Amino acid sequence: MLKRRKFLALSSGIVASVLTPGQSWGNAARALKEPGSFIGPQWPKSVLLNVNAEKKPPSQNYDFHPDNSIVDNIASVPLNVLDQIFPDIVITEDEIKIFKKTLARLSRLQNYIGYGNFNVIGWDQSLRFARNYQQIGKFSRAELDFIEKLFSIEANSLGFYGDKVVSRLSSSIVKKDIRKIPGTGHYLFRGDAFDTYLRIRNDIGDSVVLTSGIRSVVKQIYLFLNKAAEVDGNLSLASYSLAPPGHSYHAVGDFDVGKRNFGAKNFTEEFAQTDEFKRLSDLGYLDIRYPQNNSFGVRYEPWHIKVV
Predict the structure, then answer these.
(1) Which residue of 19, 93, 105, 260 has the smallest Cβ count within 10 Å?
(2) Which residues span the domain enclosing 171?
C-alpha cells in the first residue's frame, strides 16, 4: 500500500532571484493567498489511477500528438515587436539543470500512468507515484522548490494578465465529476462542459473533434515547461502560447475543439478559416476566451470553447 504523504507545505518565501539581473518570478505569498479562486477537492484516498491505462495518446483520426500540438506564430513576429510585448523573463543557466530534470520526471510520470490519467492527476497523487515507483523517481527538494516557485509566480510579471483560477498547487479533480471522452484521451467536467460538447457534436457532426479537455495543474505545468524548453527557457514567450500553471481555464471547464484530420493547424489561426469554425460561430458556441487583440497577453485562440 502506498504510504500516506503529508500535504505539501506551500512556502510563501520561495521568491529567490533565479532570472536575469533585476527580475524575479513575482510575489509567491500574494499568489497563494488570492481570495475567491477555485480550490478543487482532493481525490478520495481509496482511489488510485489505473496505471495499466493508455501509455500513449490514443490513436485518433486526426494526425497530431496532442502534447506537441500547441503551436504558435511567434517566429513570424518581428523582434522589435516582441521586445515591446514581452518582459523577457528567462530561466538562468543556474536553473536550467533543475528545469530539465523536472521536465524529464514529469514526462516519466506521464509515460508510467498513461496519457489520459495524466490529464487529470493531482499534485499530491503525482508525488506518491514518483516516490513509490522507481521508473519515475522521487522529486528532489530542488525540483519541488522549482515547481512551487513556478506555480507561485506573479503571471503579470511574464506579460500574462489572465485570472488565476486554481489557487493551490495541491488542488485536484474529483473523479465522479468528470467524464472520459472515448477515443480522445481527454476528460470533460460533467454538466455544462460535457453538455456543450454533446450539443456541438449533435449540431455539427463528427468533423469536430475534442483536441484538449481538462488539464490538471500537473498537466499544465508539464505543458508550460515543454513550451518554455522550446523557446530556450523564456517564460514570457511560453506564457504567450500557454496560460501559466494555475491560470488555465482548462482546469475548471473550458475545452478545445478542432477539425478532424486538420492536424496541428487546429491550434493556429487557420482553424478560423474552416467550415467547422464558421458553423461553431453561427450557432453561438464561440464566446472566445482569448479573442483577437485581447488584453490578457495571449495569442488569438479561435479553437477555445469558453464554458466557465
Answers:
(1) 93
(2) 60-69+78-305
